[in-house]
Design a protein that fits this description.
By secondary structure, the protein is of the alpha+beta class. It has five domains: 10-93, no CATH class; 112-137 and 379-455, Beta Barrel (conserved putative lor/sdh protein from methanococcus maripaludis s2 fold), CATH 2.40.420.20; 142-152 and 298-378, Elongation Factor Tu (Ef-tu), domain 3; 158-183 and 272-295, no CATH class; 189-264. It is built from eight helices and 22 strands. The protein has helices at residues 10-36, 39-56, 66-69, 79-93, 120-126, 189-220, 226-253, 440-455; strands at 116-117, 129-132, 134-150, 155-158, 164-168, 176-177, 182-187, 266-270, 275-280, 287-288, 295-298, 302-310, 322-327, 333-341, 351-359, 370-387, 392-394, 397-404, 407-412, 414-418, 422-427, 434-438. Strands 3-12-15-14-13-16 form a six-stranded antiparallel β-barrel. A four-stranded antiparallel beta sheet has the order 1-19-18-17. Helix 1 runs antiparallel to helix 2 (39-56).
Length: 456
């Protein structure tokens, strides 16, 4: 029995209705996704859409979504129907667009950027002091490296001047001594011989005086001849010379005439002037020669600051010129005068030696200390200048801080000549304009902290 398939006009119409429903639901889902802007909503709509299609199409028309919703594919549908379904479902699954981020320039702080807010109370606490920019004298300073040395005019390298052996050494290294103070006691054979010679000459002198007195009396009484009287006088003069010679020998060595209780060989070494024992090369029992340097004593109340001066700088370094000496290891300075400038330039260094005599009553300037010597090379009048300590370096720019409404701002400037106190301003400020003369470093720190916070 042959049976023909029946063709009903409801089949195509039913398909068109299903496609229209799918498109409407897809458009509605896309609208909801765009309004909500959340991917979660898109997922919910996608699930709802899939179940609605499954309920409306019993024959499984959505072959494009078969893997997502688990429905079977119906081979009876046309290809264009399934392509439309796939496009709609892809549109539903696309996430909503996020709003674009603002550029970094739009996220700034407007007019407040760079402003250091500070009231009068905070200014006082931070030590901020204002001044007005104006004309000033700027001195061109020549700075030379130097070193503190002993004042050689007040330094003695003590030698015993006689050979001997140290019996006692009461002086110690670093000790302050007075002129004539005992440094060491030596036992010296040479001193013993010199003192013996002096004693013998003194005895001969006594005999010569007695003989001369007797011969003089006899000659005056016409008892003896005049020749005997003259010979006695000559012997007296020779004895006096011998005694004087022996005394001069002992004085040259510093031994003195009498040995005292210590004996003829006792030699006392004493300080030549007030000073400090900076070197000691003698101990008890040590044998020394007459040229051995056993002590170095220096009067440190006056020292030298020595430096080397290049040929182009010599015109600015003159004897009698005032100079400021500053220590490099700590904050200390003193004023002295140029005492000496070398007349010759070294062949190897191409510099000339110079030195400054520096008072040192407190002993601050120790020999061996490195220093910077500042001398005024020239001076000129600057039409506009500020205090040197007011200048700060920020981002490779020189700035000063100026007061504005509500606080301070960094003002870039171009500077010219400068000395330790004043700096010439070529651009960036006006005459009479207020600026921060003291406390600018605190403002720089505040600005750096605020910039770091804004960058985060």
């Amino acid at each position: 029995m042959n049976t023909k398939p029946s063709s009903s006009p409801l089949g195509p119409r039913r398909t068109l209705v299903a496609i229209a429903v799918i498109l409407a639901l897809g458009a509605l889902a896309a609208t909801l996704i765009l309004r909500s802007g959340t991917p979660g909503a898109a997922k919910a709509d996608s699930h709802g859409h899939g179940h609605s299609e499954a309920a409306g199409h019993a024959d499984g028309e959505h072959h494009g979504a078969a893997a997502a919703d688990g429905h079977k594919h119906d081979e009876g549908h046309a290809d264009d129907e399934h392509h439309e379904d796939s496009k709609a479902e892809k549109a539903e699954a696309r996430p909503a667009a996020q709003p674009a981020a603002k550029p970094a320039a739009e996220a700034g702080h407007g007019d407040d950027e760079g402003l250091i807010a500070m009231d009068a109370q905070r200014m006082q606490a931070a030590g901020v002091r204002l001044a007005e920019a104006g004309p000033a004298t700027v001195r061109s300073v020549l700075q030379l490296p130097g070193e503190i040395r002993f004042n050689e005019d007040r330094t003695a390298h003590v030698v015993p001047r006689v050979a001997g052996i140290a019996e006692s050494v009461p002086a110690n290294l670093g000790q302050n001594v007075k002129k004539g103070q005992l440094l060491a006691v030596l036992s010296s054979a040479a001193v013993s011989e010199q003192r013996s010679e002096l004693l013998a000459a003194s005895k001969r002198l006594e005999l010569a005086r007695t003989t001369y007195a007797r011969e003089k009396q006899l000659w005056e009484e016409k008892v003896s001849a005049e020749q005997d009287y003259l010979q006695a006088r000559q012997a007296l003069r020779e004895a006096e010379i011998a005694v004087s010679n022996a005394q001069q020998k002992l004085a040259a060595t510093g031994a003195g005439a009498g040995g005292g209780a210590g004996g003829l060989n006792r030699f006392e070494l004493r300080a030549p002037f007030d000073g400090v024992i900076v070197e000691k090369h003698l101990s008890v029992g040590e044998a020394v020669q007459d040229t051995t340097q056993v002590f170095t004593i220096s009067d440190l109340r006056s020292v030298w600051a020595e430096m080397r001066v290049a040929a182009p700088d010599l015109p600015a370094v003159r004897v009698g010129e005032k100079a400021t000496v500053r220590a490099t290891a700590f904050d200390s300075s003193a004023t002295g005068e140029v005492a000496y400038v070398g007349a010759l330039i070294g062949q190897d260094t191409r510099t000339a030696p110079a030195r400054i005599t520096l008072p040192n009553p407190d002993g601050v300037w120790r020999p061996g200390l490195f220093v910077n010597v500042e001398l005024t090379a020239s001076s000129r009048q600057a039409p506009l200048a500020v205090a040197t300590q007011a200048l700060q370096k920020m981002e490779q720019q020189t700035v000063v801080f100026v007061p504005v409404q509500g606080g301070f701002r960094a003002q870039p400037v171009r500077v010219g000549r400068a000395d330790g106190k004043t700096t010439e301003v070529l651009e960036g400020l006006k005459p009479g304009q207020s600026y921060v003369a003291e406390g600018s470093f605190m403002l720089k720190a505040e600005l750096g902290k605020a910039t770091a916070e804004h960058s985060h």
